[in-house]
Design a protein that fits this description.
alpha+beta; outer membrane lipoprotein receptor (LolB), chain A; eleven-stranded antiparallel β-sheet; 2 helices; 11 strands; globular; disordered N terminus
């Protein structure tokens, strides 16, 4: 019985450490690029995403809106959007909370990086339970899967339950699936080709 209790305590500690480890690992990330594939009941998106601390973002849309490019400058808190690849001179200046550029789930570009996901996971973890589900590879990438579930009806931004897959090499999340209190899928995001601390051209986040 004692050995079983120790195993369960160890599993609980490890699952909590995965979120903490990811946050610690992310502190050492200055830049990254990734292909985001997201799906929900309302939409499906594929976006090539680029990030540079302290918050510069570039999104190149593949589906929908193929060819559209969006960049965000945290210094000016301004979004520049070129909606049509064939009309390079047509660029819009927008606020990051503009409805035109919110995702189907209401996400804004200024809170779209990995740290935003981890902060939400940590808040849900603090108000619920975390369970390690073991090794669960993502597209042949070794990963560990955990389940975070709010106690009772506790939710963060409508998220009551999170399944998170953490890459064993980087400790960073490479897949996330969120659910509401009814157990219905809110959004699933797959992060393909994650490459950290890459060098971007000097004008890469200018549009």
């Amino acid at each position: 019985m004692l050995s079983l209790i120790l195993v369960l305590m160890s599993a609980t500690s490890l699952s909590g450490d995965l979120v903490h480890s990811a946050m610690e690992s992310y502190r050492n990330v200055e830049t990254y690029q990734v292909t985001l594939k997201s799906r929900s009941s309302a939409s499906s998106e594929i976006i090539r995403y680029y990030y540079k601390k302290p918050g510069f973002v570039r999104m190149e849309f593949i589906t929908p809106h193929n060819g559209a490019i969006l960049v965000y400058n945290p210094s000016t808190n301004e979004v520049r959007l070129r909606p049509f690849s064939f009309l390079k001179s047509f660029v819009l200046s927008l606020s990051p909370d503009s409805k035109l550029i919110r995702s189907a789930k209401g996400h804004t570009v200024d809170a779209s990086d990995i740290s935003a996901l981890l902060k939400t996971a940590k808040m849900l973890q603090d108000g619920g339970e975390t369970e390690i589900l073991g090794n669960n590879d993502v597209d042949s990438r070794p990963a560990v899967l955990i389940n975070i579930k709010g106690e009772g009806d506790f939710a963060v931004d409508g998220i009551h339950q999170y399944f998170l897959w953490f890459d064993k090499d980087t400790s960073l999340p490479i897949k996330a699936a969120s659910y509401d209190v009814k157990g219905e899928l809110l959004e699933e995001v797959l992060m393909n080709d994650l490459d950290i601390n890459v060098e971007f051209p000097e004008d890469f986040f200018i549009l």
